[in-house]
Amino acid sequence: MVIEAGHTCMTLRGVQAAGSTTITSTLLGALSEDPRARQEFFALVDVRI
């Protein structure tokens, strides 16, 4: 699961970094436990490990 979101506190106050986003990710199930499954998944979605 990957979630990308804009943080209002970063864009409206504080550092006022326009367009800043935060990405949170996690691997669950077989992708978390099995290195071969994880490698195959990342190859299919063309993500560099």
Automatic annotation (TrEMBL):
Pathway: Cofactor biosynthesis; 7,8-dihydroneopterin triphosphate biosynthesis; 7,8-dihydroneopterin triphosphate from GTP: step 1/1. GO terms for cellular component: cytoplasm. Its EC number is 3.5.4.16. It catalyses: GTP + H2O = 7,8-dihydroneopterin 3'-triphosphate + formate + H(+). Residues 2-45 form the GTP cyclohydrolase I domain. SUPFAM superfamilies: Tetrahydrobiopterin biosynthesis enzymes-like (SSF55620). Keywords: Hydrolase, One-carbon metabolism. It comes from the Bacteria. This is GTP cyclohydrolase 1.
